[in-house]
Design goal:
With 505 residues, this protein is mainly alpha-helical. The chain has helices spanning 2-8, 14-75, 79-97, 114-125, 129-142, 144-158, 165-169, 181-191, 196-211, 221-228, 238-252, 271-283, 290-305, 322-331, 339-345, 347-358, 386-399, 405-428, 430-504; strands spanning 179-180, 318-320, 368-372, 375-380, 383-384. Helix 3 (79-97) packs parallel to helix 4 (114-125) and helix 8 (181-191) packs antiparallel against helix 12 (271-283). The N and C termini lie far apart (99 Å). Residues 249-268 are annotated as: Disordered. Keywords: Membrane, Transmembrane, Transmembrane helix.
């Protein structure tokens, strides 16, 4: 409306105003179109990206399918080993399922250890000991490692078996060598009770021997790091030591088995490692076809999910050192079945760590220095340093020192005024009496003011001294509480140390 009035008054140009409005409308329309264009370009780019990724996945799956067809054609010459594996899987399924066991129909495959091993397994299941011994010898001659782990795991799936210490020790980890996938599987199953308490004791002994004893050549730093988070221990506060040893005690204390909980064979700590081991041994295949089998697995995974599958876990692949695996069993969150045996094997190391932590407690505080009114005061359990308190009180008194000049001056003036008043009334003159009376009143007022100021100074000094005493007393109580807490944590450390010594003994 203002622009219209300006035009009517001759101060504006109607044509310019109309043109300006049209330009603003056009700018607004252009901005809206630009925003819509940007949104469309962004959406188109997103759609193109999705389409491109889908096209890439389809192309990769197609290429993998074509290559898989070629690999399958090459695997066709290994039909007999595939039939052997199929028959062995059926045999193992019958063993674990508890159903009747039929003799496996196995073609002859030269050099393939699984053929005589499967025949030895069936012979053992039907109590044909002579045939079992013959086929076991043949499988061992072809590949002793595969055959021993296969027969041990498969026979244990069929039911409890008695293994000699020599037989079991040959399958468990040994000193100075990395732990293989197969040895770790037998380790887990044995720890869970696959071969009874004798097997657990033998496993603990084997692991303890492989770990060695702590010493200069075998430092306990990795164990301290697992317990405390720090490899070196110089000085430990009692509270931190009590918490650390309490947590360690809780972790090492055997858990009570849950009552009336139905067993879950799908997650059986005894059977699951053995099944995984048998799957690795059987799926590995015959030596000539193994590269093709691994290639086919990778290509099949790309065709089915678009992603390559994890690398095949060979039975003899190294999975870690004994020390690392034992520490993982003790301090890991998903290895409760292997923890008791690991604790038995690592008892010397754990005991050394407990003694190191308990033996490096920081000294109890004898005193503490606190800052009060700009002075450092030494505070002990008996209270603050008397000399320091005296110095503080002197500082406070010096700050509120009473100045008696006003009081004395007022009293002297009042006395002089009184004398003049008496003299005036005695006959000297009324004027002197009046002046003396005035001087008396003024002197009295000055004396009263001086006396009140003196009292206020004394009261303020007393209040500040009381505040200082309360502050020092609070600091003393805090120090006593610290000392009491320190003693309490030291008692807890001693309690945990004794309990851990009993657990690890």
């Amino acid at each position: 409306m203002n622009e219209d009035f300006a035009w009517w008054l001759g101060d504006g140009d109607w044509y310019d105003r109309r043109q300006k409005a049209q330009i603003e409308e056009l700018n607004s329309a252009v901005d809206g179109a630009y925003r819509q264009s940007s949104q469309l370009r962004s959406r188109l780019a997103r759609i193109e990206g999705d389409l491109q990724s889908k096209v890439n996945r389809i192309a990769a799956a197609f290429d993998a399918f074509v290559e898989l067809s070629d690999v399958r054609a090459e695997l066709a010459v290994y039909t007999d080993p595939a039939i052997v594996r199929h028959q062995v899987r059926l045999l193992l399924a019958a063993v674990t399922g508890g159903g009747p066991v039929d003799p496996p129909e196995l073609p002859e495959v030269g050099g393939y250890w699984l053929v005589p091993a499967a025949r030895a397994l069936y012979a053992q299941l039907v109590d044909d000991h002579a045939a079992a011994a013959k086929h076991t010898e043949q499988a061992t001659e072809l590949d002793a490692g595969h055959a021993k782990y296969f027969l041990t795991a498969a026979l244990r799936l069929a039911g409890p078996v008695d293994l000699s210490a020599v037989q079991l020790a040959g399958l468990l980890p040994t000193e100075g060598r990395p732990v293989t996938y197969a040895a770790r599987a037998l380790w887990r199953a044995t720890a869970a009770g696959a071969f009874g308490r004798p097997g657990q004791a033998l496993l603990a002994t084997s692991l303890e021997s492989a770990l060695g004893q702590p010493g200069v050549d075998n430092p306990i730093d990795p164990w301290l790091a697992a317990i405390t988070g720090s490899a070196g221990v110089t000085s430990v506060r009692p509270a931190a030591a009590a918490t650390t040893l309490g947590s360690l005690r809780q972790r090492l204390t055997p858990a009570e088995p849950p009552a009336d909980v139905p067993a879950d064979d799908g997650d059986d700590p005894v059977l699951t490692p053995l099944r995984d081991l048998l799957r690795a041994l059987v799926d590995e295949g015959h030596a000539p076809e193994r590269p093709l089998l691994r290639k086919a697995e990778q290509l099949r995974s790309v065709v089915e999910s678009g992603l390559p599958r994890p690398e095949f876990q060979s039975w003899d692949a190294a999975v870690g050192s004994v020390a690392d695996l034992v520490r993982g069993d003790i301090f890991g969150t998903d290895t409760p079945g292997t923890r008791p045996v690991a604790v038995r094997a690592a008892a010397p190391w754990l005991s050394a760590c407990v003694e190191t932590i308990a033996g490096h407690l920081s000294a109890p505080p004898e005193s503490v220095s606190v800052r009060v009114r700009g002075r450092d005061i030494r505070v002990t359990a008996d209270g603050a340093d008397p000399a320091g308190l005296a110095a503080l009180r002197n500082d406070i008194d010096a700050g509120y020192q009473v100045r008696p000049a006003k009081l004395i001056g007022g009293l002297v003036t009042a006395v002089v005024g009184l004398a003049a008043t008496v003299a005036g009334f005695a006959g000297v003159g009324v004027g002197l009496a009046v002046v003396g009376l005035i001087v008396l009143v003024v002197g009295g007022i000055v004396a009263i003011v001086g006396w009140r100021e003196s009292g206020q100074y004394k009261a303020a000094s007393a209040r500040e001294r009381a505040d200082m005493d309360r502050s020092v007393e609070a600091q003393t109580e805090a120090f006593r509480s610290t000392r009491s807490s320190d003693e309490h944590h030291r008692e807890r450390v001693a309690e945990h140390r004794a309990a851990l010594a009993e657990l690890l003994g």
